[in-house]
Structures are given as C-alpha cells and as structure tokens.
C-alpha cells in the first residue's frame, strides 16, 4: 500500500510544474481568446495527465490504472480550465484560487483511492487532528470575521478629511486596508505560534513607517487616529487568538 502523503506530494509537484512552469504565456492568452476552439486548452489538460505518468510508474501502478488516472486528470482539468476561461473577470484572484482548489481536490481524491488504508475516520482519530482544526480555525477567525469586528467598532468614530482627498485617500485606505490587515494578522499569528515575537515587532514597525508616514502627509489627525485604532485592534485580537491557540497546543509562551 502506498503512502498517502508521498503520493499526494508527487502529484502536487507535477501539478505545479505543468500549471506554472511548463505552460507558456502564449497558451494562457490563447485559451482566453479561443476557449475550447483552440488546441492549447486540450494540450494543457493532456499535459497534466501525461505528467502524472512519471510518479505513477515510479510507485509501480499498473498500466491500466495509469491510463485511467491520466484520463480522469486530463478530463477534469479540461472542464475546470474551460469553465475558468469562459467566465468574465476570470483574472480575479478568487477564480484563480477556486480553480486551484478544484485541481488539488481531484488529486487528493485520486491519492485517497490509491491509499485505501487512509480513511476520513482514521484522519479524524489522528492525535494531531484537534490541533490542526484549532490552528485552521484560528487563521479563519483572524481574516474576515476579525475584519467585520474591527469595522463594527470603528463605525462610531468619524473621520475628517479634505474634500480633495476624500475620494482618493479614504477609499484607498478602506480597500487596501482590508488586504493589509489580512496579511498583517496572518504574519502576526504565524510568528506568535512559532514563538518569534521579535518578527512580530518588525512587522508592526514596518507597517507604521509606511502607513502612518503617508497619512501625516495626506490627511489630518483624525484619519491617523482612525487607522491607528484599527491597527491596534487588529494586533490585540490576533495576539489573543494566538495566545489561546498556543495554550491549547500546550506551547510554552516565551
């Protein structure tokens, strides 16, 4: 019986090579322009299927199993790619992330089938399963839910800006601030869980230099205080989440 993680790792390696390194930019443009009418869509899907022959032969699959796997991967990749290039605004990150999740889901399903000893019941009973769920829940909480919490708290604070700068400055802060918050909280939680609190300080210092320096030039004091409150709320919530996860994982806080 094959090792699930070894099989999946080899599949993911082939996927990364075929999707990002062996696919020319001309194929990407042609797929968007011609969709199913261009040969590039078929070639790219077939490339993914053929690529999996390498790990399949190494681990000793029968040729009938290899042929079946190549067919499943090629067809599924073609359907997913066709859907993506047929959708408007397919260049958005959401579509990119979704199609990658679908690709990987197919590979995970095949790896599960090849390693029948690995079952969902066995995974849920694994001694590290609760810890994994705890960490994943923590990361999910610090993203959108935390943004909603911070946004709700900041609603009672008013911001005064010059009329000329209202559209450019305030909208830019709202749109870019959410993404900055996601990245900031992800870094803080990651560094907290591994005990690298000096790196947390570096993240906060770097953000302060770039963010508040520009605010002092473009907006008034109220805008600076507004962003400062949001930043501190972000740090406090993430630090508390990280502390609770560390305690749950029985990690010694330094």
TrEMBL record:
Please indicate if the UniProt record lists Transmembrane as a keyword. Answer: yes
In Pfam terms, one family for this protein is DUF3307
Q: Which InterPro entries match?
A: Phage_phiKZ_Orf197
Bilayer-crossing residues are 6-24, 45-73, 93-112, 132-154, 187-206, 226-249
Q: Which UniProt keywords apply?
A: Membrane, Transmembrane, Transmembrane helix
Q: Which domain of life is it from?
A: Bacteria
Instruction: Write the protein's name.
Output: DUF3307 domain-containing protein
Query: Which organism was this protein described from?
Result: Marisediminitalea aggregata
């Amino acid at each position: 019986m094959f090792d699930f993680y070894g099989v999946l790792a080899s599949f993911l390696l082939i996927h990364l090579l075929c999707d990002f390194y062996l696919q020319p930019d001309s194929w990407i443009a042609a797929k968007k322009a011609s969709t199913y009418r261009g040969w590039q869509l078929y070639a790219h899907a077939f490339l993914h299927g053929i690529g999996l022959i390498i790990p399949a032969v190494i681990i000793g699959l029968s040729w009938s199993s290899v042929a079946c796997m190549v067919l499943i991967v090629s067809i599924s990749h073609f359907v997913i790619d066709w859907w993506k290039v047929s959708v408007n605004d397919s260049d958005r990150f959401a579509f990119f992330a979704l199609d990658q999740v679908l690709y990987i889901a197919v590979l995970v399903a095949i790896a599960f089938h090849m390693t029948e000893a690995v079952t969902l019941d066995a995974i849920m009973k694994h001694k590290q399963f609760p810890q994994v769920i705890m960490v994943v829940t923590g990361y999910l909480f610090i993203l959108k839910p935390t943004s909603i919490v911070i946004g709700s708290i900041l609603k009672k604070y008013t911001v005064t800006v010059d009329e000329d700068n209202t559209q450019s400055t305030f909208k830019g802060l709202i749109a870019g601030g959410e993404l900055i918050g996601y990245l900031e909280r992800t870094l803080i939680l990651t560094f907290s869980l591994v005990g690298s609190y000096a790196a947390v300080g570096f993240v906060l210092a770097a953000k302060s230099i770039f963010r508040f320096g520009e605010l002092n030039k473009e907006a008034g004091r109220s805008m600076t205080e507004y962003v400062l409150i949001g930043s501190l709320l972000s740090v406090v919530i993430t630090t508390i989440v990280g502390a609770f996860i560390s305690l749950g994982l029985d990690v010694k806080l330094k």
